[in-house]
Amino acid sequence: MYVGPLRSLVDELGRLPGIGPKSAQRIAFHLLKVESEDALRLVDAIVAVKERVTSCTICFNVAEGELCEFCSDPRRDGSLLCVVEDPRDIVAVERTREFRGRYHVLGGALNPIEGLGPDQLRVRELLDRLSDGEVTEVILCTNPNLEGEATAMYLARLLVPLGVRVTRIASGLPVGGDLEYADELTLGRALEGRREVDA
Amino acid sequence: MSLYRDEGVVLRSLRLGEADRIVTMVTEGHGKVRAVAKGVRRTTSKFGGRLEPLSHVALQCWSGRELDTVTQVEVLDGFRAVREDLVRVAKAFTLLEVVDQLAQERHPNPRLYETLVGALRSLDHADAPLLVAAFCLKVLALEGSAPIVDRCASCGSVSELIAFDLVEGGVLCRSCRRGRPVSAGALDVVRLVLGGGLASVLAEPAGPSTEEVTDLATEAMEVHLERRLRSLRSSPTG
Ligand SMILES: [Zn+2]
Ligand SMILES: [Zn+2]
Q1: What is the pLDDT of residues B6-30, one digit of tens each?
Q2: For a designed S-S bond to A182, which of A96, A187, B76, B204 qualifies (C-beta 3.0 to 4.6 A apart)?
Q3: Residue A1: pLDDT above 70?
Q4: Whole-complex ipTM
Q5: Contact across the interface for A185 and B93, Cβ inside 8 Å
Q6: What does DSSP say about strands B170-173 and B161-165: parallel, antiparallel, or unpaired?
């Protein structure tokens, strides 16, 4: 269809997640059309990410340098550890401004059918972090789906015997949602997790 | 494009694009179906948790050329007791993996489907030690690949059946023996499952032959599938 550089651009774009052949073609032609400096900014951003962004050696969040912004920030509470599947989940938790502790990125969730077992997750690294006793509470913040729940149960089994407080984020109804549309798993959990109301 | 209704069990799902998932289901009337659930990853999705793997659902889909599209879904059974127990959820993963491997797209296999739903109900009710083994053996029988257990798979002798070999397809007598040794107790359990005594096998507590029968049945399934079962190798319960 296309030859030379345009062909390779379409091919490369088509390898990106969520981008089909049509979108790849559309983006390629867009890049062909825009000013050189606009296109080169994208190139620079990609190069910078590949050269400078690494993985935090403590929590495996994305980092520039050895430590991520949370591990290197002395104002964060080192006694609270929030365990997430993916660095993008840290962004979501940070947006709440409710959490002042630190993080641990597992790198996924248990998914035995896809061959993802405990050995493929950063579980040993999590246990290492608990050895000095600074962490007093581990918050299991994996996704509330089958894989995330299995991961949380698996971690709880490992962590509770260590004497650390282990909590799981609550499951319930989305704010602004309608009760009548709630599925029974979600509503069941919400009922189970009900709490006392102050007068 | 046409609209259809069916019931099914969600086997697995893959993230697609920004907020969608491709949900793989085994259905009663349409065999294995892969359908797009639009927006399901948004917390405000009308599907909510209804299309989570393991859920037994009634659904309505548009059929498409490659992928169908889920338009409505209702939960028939969420198997909550299974979800909330790591040991049981690990077993459920194996059942789902086996069915995912055997079910054919758009080719109904109602007996395989019923066997899965029955096994999940049983697992939700109680954690029977022999559930995975019984499920594998029953499904192998449906596939016409049950191991031979009533006579020597090589010479037909009925006495001194002491070995088991998956290449030969079943038990072997003392003079034909190869493969692994097998206990009389384990053979009794296998015979009982294949003979229709499933309920009594599931009611049995864990015993000396539980592990032996489970290994034998899952390996027979792996030979039949010509593939390792990942859920056993990556099991969170070891
Ligand atoms: Zn860090
Ligand atoms: Zn023989």
Answers
A1: 999 999 998 888 889 999 999 999 9
A2: A187
A3: no
A4: 0.87
A5: no
A6: antiparallel
Three-state secondary structure readout of chain B: CEEEEEEEEEEEEEEECCCEEEEEEEECCCEEEEEEECCCCCCCCCCCCCCCCCCEEEEEEEECCCCEEEEEEEEEECCHHHHCCHHHHHHHHHHHHHHHHHCEECECCHHHHHHHHHHHHHHHHCCCCCHHHHHHHHHHHHCCCCCECCCCCCCCCCCCEEEEECCCCEEEECCCCCCEECCHHHHHHHHHHHCCCHHHHHCCCCCCCHHHHHHHHHHHHHHHHCCCCHHHHCCCCC
Q: H or E element: which one contains A139?
A: strand A137-140
Q: How many CB pairs under 8 A join A and B?
A: 92
> Computed from CA positions of residues B33, B36, B42, B44, in that sequence, does the dihedral angle turn out positive or negative?
negative
**Rounded CA separation B129/B124 (Å):** 13
Domains of chain A in start order, with CATH, are 4-55 (1.10.8.420), 62-168 (3.40.1360.10)
Mean pLDDT of chain B: 93
The sheet that has B170-173: what strands, in order across it? B170-173, B161-165, B180-181
- Decide: residue B39, CB within 10 A, 0-12 exposed, 13-18 middle, 19+ buried: middle
Q: What residue in B sits closest to A172 (Cα-Cα)?
A: B43
Both tokens of A44, joined, read 């620079």
Tell me the pLDDT of chain A averaged across its residues.
93
Using CB atoms, which residue from A18, A112, A188 is nearest to B236?
A112
User: Which runs of consecutive H residues, i.e. helices, occur in chain A?
Assistant: 4-14, 21-33, 36-52, 87-96, 123-129, 146-159, 184-192
CATH code of the domain made up of B2-80: 2.40.50.140
